[in-house]
Specification:
Elements (H helix, E strand, L loop, with lengths): L1 E6 L2 E4 L4 E9 L6 E7 L6 E7 L4 E3 L7 E5 L5 E6 L8 E9 L1 E4 L3 E6 L1
Parallel strand pairs: 2-11
Antiparallel strand pairs: 1-3, 3-8, 4-5, 4-9, 5-6, 7-8, 9-10, 9-11
Length: 114
């Protein structure tokens, strides 16, 4: 079992920055990938960024150059640095951890005002 807890959301003006954190606990030794997803009202959940155990990363085209995914040395805490935020980035951001099965956090709200 893996527990996943996000933090760091909030309200920010367009052009501002936020840093989200995702803390994984429990059976974390075999984490193979971790991703940040987001879901806006009335829209499908979409992948924002993903990092695999080897360190490779992928980003949605809409956030490339603005968002950066990273992790700590223990590989149990993951971050999403979000710069140059736009109103269309407004969504609930969810952390996903893959350890044989997928584990999800409860999500953290990010609201970008114009």
């Amino acid at each position: 079992q893996v527990q996943v807890v996000e933090s760091g959301g909030g309200l920010v003006q367009a052009g501002g920055s936020l840093r989200l954190s995702c803390a994984a606990s429990g059976s974390t030794r075999s984490i193979s990938a971790m991703g940040w997803y987001r879901q806006a009202p009335g829209k499908q959940r979409e992948l924002v960024a993903r990092i695999i155990s080897g360190g490779s990363t992928i980003y949605a085209d809409s956030v490339k150059g603005r968002f950066t995914i990273s992790r700590d040395n223990a590989k149990t805490t993951f971050y999403l640095q979000m710069n140059s935020l736009k109103p269309e980035d407004t969504a609930v951001y969810l952390c996903n951890v893959l350890v044989l099965s997928n584990y999800w956090g409860q999500g953290t709200q990010v609201t970008v005002s114009s």
